[in-house]
Amino acid sequence: MATYLIRRLLIAIPSLLAISLILFTVLALAPGDPFEELATNPNVPPEVRAALRAKFGIDDPVMVRYFRWLAAMAQGDWGFSFASRINVDSLILQRVPTTLFVVGSSQLLALAIALPVGIYAATRPYSLFDQIANTLAFVGFSLPTFFTGLLFILLFSIYLDWLPFVYRSDIAATGWRWYWEMLRQAIMPITVLGLFQAASYTRYVRSAVLDVVRLDYVTTARAKGLSEQKVTIRHVARNALIPVVTLVALQMPAVFGGAIVTEQIFRVPGIGSLLISAILSNDTPVVMAVTFVFACLVVLFNLIADLLYGWLDPRISFR
Amino acid sequence: MASPILSVSNLTTSFRVEGLWRPVVKGISFEIAPKETVAVVGESGSGKSVTALSIMRLTPPGSSKIEGSIKLSGKELLTLPEPEMRHIRGNEVAMIFQEPMTSLNPVLTIGFQIAEALILHRGLSRSEAEAETIRLLEKVRIPAAKSRFHEYPHRFSGGMRQRVMIAMALACKPKLLIADEPTTALDVTIQAQILELIKVLQEEEDMSVLFITHDMGVVAEIADRTVVMYNGQAVETGPTEDIFARPTHPYTRSLLSAVPKLGSMGGHTRPMRFPVVDRATGLSDVPTETSDTVAPASERPVLEVSGLTTRFEIRAGLLGGVKGRVHAVENVSFSLQSGETLALVGESGCGKSTTGRSVMRLIEPLSGSVLLDGEDVLKLDQRTLRDRRKRMQMIFQDPFASLNPRMNVGAAIAEPLIINGLATRSQAREKVAELLRRVGLLPDMASRFPHEFSGGQRQRICIARALAVEPRLIVADESVSALDVSVKAQVINLMLELQERMKLAYLFISHDMAVVERVSHRVAVMYLGEIVEIGPREAVFGNPQHPYTKRLLAAVPVPDPARRLEKRPVSNDEIKSPLRAPDYVPPVRQFREVSPGHAVMIWGQEWETQPAIAKVA
């Protein structure tokens, strides 16, 4: 187990290096850099501009800049945000917890809906419940989050005025009240993202359970005289979860991608909205850092999925 | 007869297929007396498994219905409410299934799975159930039962898992045990152990047994009475001796004639066709030996294998170092004449399939030489190898999996012709028609897809595909093992006929001793990657020398109830694994010639004392 973990972390290093190289090159090839606006600003003399460019080494070859970035990164220096005028690492640290909170809760919500609904629907295939669940799931993943998000805002914030539609990080309250306000403003983004994921997970859980239900050991369990409920929970569910875990982990990049859109709609101050504003203001160090954080999260979730896999399935041995 | 434990009358089970109720079991009636063993025998699709599931009421609810009457000790089961039925299942009637590999839940420990039934029906506490489970595991002779309680099913071999299933079934001392093909997926020596175990436990526990099987040998071995099922109906019911001695129904006769009987080939040197029985009249022809197809010894053999060795490395650890080697094939040598059948026999893991694949170079062997018409296949470059593959073709075990479901049969057979440039598309079409005719199918079947054919027909298609390039050698890897008895007989008859016509050489890989006896000229017995005995079929079967050959022959169930009383010694041995430490150096083996062409490996100490516990490799 320990050797497995060490080996997996060692394997992650070259892949993260390759990812960073590709990201850096693509960003360098993209037109525009943080000093572009200086070129059109008549107050900045050309020699100052040139001096600044030389100071930050922007005109050096891509590889030289990449290795400079890498060396700095290895020492814990994430660079400097030109737009926000603070260090990139503190900027990201401000934003990451919000994103993890929203994405994490929405995933929990998605699983809390998908597991019971998917399992129940699969034990009664083609029943009324199954057909309704299938239809709703289909509707759910056909509607993009930016649409349902706006619909929710229109309904709950504007007509009913129950929930705030702008997510604020500076709530002026303390104690329980603060938690309550945090929760209230997080409900909509979490629900929108969670329902969207729940729709596709439900269909996946359903088919995974259907695959397991017809296996021999389920018949063995029934032949033992166990009740349907016990058969489903003890013998079917855990086996059906094994492929679902892989799916959830592989969905993570898409979930973070989807979160960018949702964060933008609800003005959630997470790293998704940071990425978008950084792209708009040509803030390359921030774009680089945020995309790299996404890459690390994806690698991390894959590792977690593999560990969970081994925990759920005793046949997997970590070598 | 004492009042029966189980009495089934006029049982009809139907499944809903596209809105229509289609009966699968049609009005079956039989009774099982206390302590009696009744066998239900039939081929696939005859409804025998559905009969078993109907007794347990385990057919899918909603899409199936069970009619008639099933009485357990006089109590009607079909009208029982579901909660009471659950009390019967696992408690009064228990069941074991065919596939030990899939009938245990992979994510729960075997101890938990057995204890579950004890806690449910006998109301034991967890610790009591654990103690009882260990007692049960000992009863089914699982070594070191106590330490294996917390292990998961994947750590057990097929035979051991079937023992676990039996322990689970016996947990609540059922009155009736339903065994649905419990030994079909097991090796012969393990099958013999499990059959013996069921017999012993039945006596100890005073159970009745309903034994479902397709194997007439097993029926003769175990059943007091037999029900022969065909197409959902019981065509013949009676004491087992009567059914074997005086079968009245034509179907029973054809079934019995298709069963190869070990030891029935004494006095014959060449292979023999199976008799063909008319299903309507029950009349059969009497087959004779095939004509002499083997090329004279003066001719160069088609295939000469010498010193063939294939090993697989097991890697593990941080840097993936070699932690062990599977010595799948170890220094194997044999030769094969044109028109000859050499059978490679042995149990799972003995390396017989790997030998076949190494000869075809589908797996790269480590060393040795494989001469095909004098040319070393192992030294060829890829391009020449592809060309030479025309001369050697392979037929696999599973006819369902070895045909591409999206490719019509004609295209599948024509493909080797076209890729080898042997025919143009229009010529190929004619050739396909001719090949289909040659394997007993109709030329206009070429446009159909594999799912439209039965298992036997598919295997014929695979044979036609192999024949398309006119090979000299065919490697038949368990090619008839997955087929029903009567279909098996037909496919074997076809293979023998093709050998006579085309002088084919067969490397016939099989675990079925009775079939091997029927079809082969020579036999090689493999054990842990090595050939332990090789020689003419008559010599090896008539005068087996190596202890392993003897053990293998003794384990084969003989379809003759009169010989049942010959009690056979059954050991508790597991099949050993050819996995060795990385520094293992295989010993140099010596062979002794028993009679001309019949050689046996000189065996060591380990065979002299009957090993009680499987030696850890």
From TrEMBL, chain A:
SUPFAM superfamilies: MetI-like (SSF161098). GO terms for biological process: transmembrane transport. It comes from the Bacteria. Gene3D superfamilies: MetI-like (1.10.3720.10). Pfam families: BPD_transp_1, BPD_transp_1_N. Residues 96-305 form the ABC transmembrane type-1 domain. One of its GO terms (cellular component) is plasma membrane. It is found in: Cell membrane. It is a multi-pass membrane protein. Keywords: Cell membrane, Membrane, Transmembrane, Transmembrane helix, Transport. The chain crosses the membrane at residues 100-123, 135-158, 240-266, 286-312. Belongs to the binding-protein-dependent transport system permease family. This is ABC transporter permease.
TrEMBL record, chain B:
One of its GO terms (cellular component) is plasma membrane. It catalyses: glutathione(out) + ATP + H2O = glutathione(in) + ADP + phosphate + H(+). One of its GO terms (biological process) is transmembrane transport. SMART domains: AAA. The keyword Glycosyltransferase does not apply. It is found in: Cell inner membrane. It is an enzyme of class 7 (translocase). One of its GO terms (molecular function) is ATP binding. Its EC number is 7.4.2.10. Keywords: ATP-binding, Cell inner membrane, Cell membrane, Hydrolase, Membrane, Nucleotide-binding, Repeat, Translocase, Transport. Residues 6-256, 303-553 form the ABC transporter domain. It is a peripheral membrane protein. Belongs to the ABC transporter superfamily. Glutathione importer (TC 3.A.1.5.11) family. The complex is composed of two ATP-binding proteins (GsiA), two transmembrane proteins (GsiC and GsiD) and a solute-binding protein (GsiB). Part of the ABC transporter complex GsiABCD involved in glutathione import. Responsible for energy coupling to the transport system. This is Glutathione import ATP-binding protein GsiA. It comes from Bosea caraganae. The lineage of its organism: Bacteria, Pseudomonadati, Pseudomonadota, Alphaproteobacteria, Hyphomicrobiales.
